């Protein structure tokens, strides 16, 4: 692509989507042309602080994830619930690989297990197969399932705050103290 055409295309993308997106496009174009000696400055040109740019050159909020040529957003900017899930699935004492179990479950099985774990359905009312399933699980399993379903730790006062009848019991069974709400601005997980 001739330089003037590259400049025109870059300017067009920058004006429509913002400078960071245009820099990602130029990175992808240069990579495709064979350039491999990129610097850290090149990376920050694609993902640096928007506050440093003039208002007219900032990425539009809807376009912030567009053209993620390095995989930065997928790899590093995980949602806060993922941190809880990662910690929970690494816990010792579970009886199953819950990620695999939930992935293999049908939608109906997933929904019913969620209802049972959170207390919206009672184990006593479950059929024999579900009661046998429950008999092979333990309190660590309940904790891990709670985290997988709710994407946060259970709270000791959870029953009253969230309406999940089993939340407080799950928290007490593992000795979880009442942790602050990580969704509030002052307690966000980094």
Structure write-up:
The chain is 54% helix and 0% strand. The chain is mainly α. Helix 1 (3-17) packs antiparallel against helix 2 (19-32) and helix 2 packs across helix 3 (40-47). The protein starts with a helix and ends in a 17-residue tail after the last helix. The model is unreliable at 178-190 (pLDDT under 50).
What keywords describe this structure?
190 residues; disordered C terminus; 54% helix; 11 helices
Set out the fold topology.
Blueprint: H1 3-17, H2 19-32, H3 40-47, H4 72-76, H5 80-89, H6 98-104, H7 107-118, H8 128-135, H9 139-150, H10 158-162, H11 167-173
Share of β-strand residues? under 5%
Gap from first CA to last CA? 41 Å
Give the radius of gyration. Answer: 24 Å
The run of helices and strands is HHHHHHHHHHH
Broad structural category: mainly alpha
pLDDT averaged over residues: 78
Q: What is the number of helical segments per DSSP (H or I, 4+ residues)?
A: 11
Strand segment count: 0
